[in-house]
Request: fold
Amino acid sequence: MPQCLSDSVPTLAVVKPKVRGFVCVTAHPAGCAAHVREQIDYVKSQPPLAHGPQKVLILGASTGYGLSSRIVAAFGAKAATLGVFYERPCDKGRPASAGWYNSVAVEQAAHAEGLYAKSINGDAFSDDIKLQTIERLKEDLGQVDLVIYSLASPRRTDPRSGEVYKSVLKPVGAPFTAKTVDTDKKEVLEVTLEPATDEDMRQTTKTMGGEDWEMWLDALRHHNLLAPGVVTVAYSYIGPEVTYPIYRNGTIGKAKEDLENTAARLTSRLADLKGRAWVSVNKAVVTQASSAIPVVPLYLSILLKVMTEKKVDEGCIEQIERLFATQLYRADGKAPTADAQGRLRVDDWEMRPDIQDAVKKIWPEVNTANLATLTDFPRYQTEFLKLFGFGLPGVNYEAEVELELPLG
Ligand code: NAI
Reply:
């Protein structure tokens, strides 16, 4: 029987979901692989990217939008991918985190097609992981032509001062009271969130703003690892008015403003390479990061219903495939079309007036009794469990599975 190398604990087990609030503390290796396979199959069902990237560094490559970016680059453009993330390996018979298993599955699928795919697991905010990444690039790939920045983290240790910044999700200026859903109890209730202090805003911006993105680009540049014409993209969100106080006008929105300002600065610094830094405003989707934001899971439950009924619903993979195919790497070779603030928008379908009007109509009506009918909360829950590899067709959840899977 396979053993965890460290402590001889058996690593074959039946894995069931254990949900604690907005996280699931277990992950299913075969289910995560099936989830990755669904995304690869989707990308392969689309036309290949004619002018796609060739050597891609993805920061935050293991789950959500970063994982989908890696899959679109590898399987839509046959790119070599180096993924950086912070995931938990199998330990003492406890399964690894979903992002670990996702990354094992992506690497295996890429290798099966003869594509380069390697990963670095550790704190991307640290100098140490930046240096490890630079060394790996120098040895294996050389200059990259695309850098995706898709980190979502509740904290960041400043590599210069050692200060630990905490990102908080709070309104700015005044308390905010709104409906939300208790996903454990399946209850709609009201929450009141107290406003952020100036210190909360500073720390959230230090964690989720553009400083680390800029440090990455500076380090890559310093080591001559950015190819002529390099593109770098970070992801942002705007969303509807119902979430403005907690998102766009809240602490996280201030951090996103900083990220957007960083893009402009990076673009001017990349001018001699004819490079470009973009912020892409993406749609709200069910990910580990979004499920932690108050109010957002209820909004997402309504949005899933409305967008599915209008046949325009998208998850991470459809969003990123559309971003690459219709903006970054268009078949006609033309430049992307930005909004007035210079951002790329793939949240355009979410923000369509007919979609938002339908959401606005449902919002005041929704309560605990009608949660499953007025919204698609059941699907929200299904999508949430899929993030951890549960509920995938074709996976035998009663069988023992190997938990100790190595990254390549
Ligand atoms: P996620 O939670 O699914 O992924 C976060 C990634 O960051 C994972 O790969 C994780 O391992 C990595 N990570 C976290 N801390 C790290 C660290 N210290 N070192 C290395 N890697 C680390 O998050 P999601 O939702 O995909 O978010 C990615 C970006 O997309 C964020 O900027 C988010 O604001 C943005 N976005 C998300 C939307 C959503 O609805 N989920 C909507 C629009 C934008």
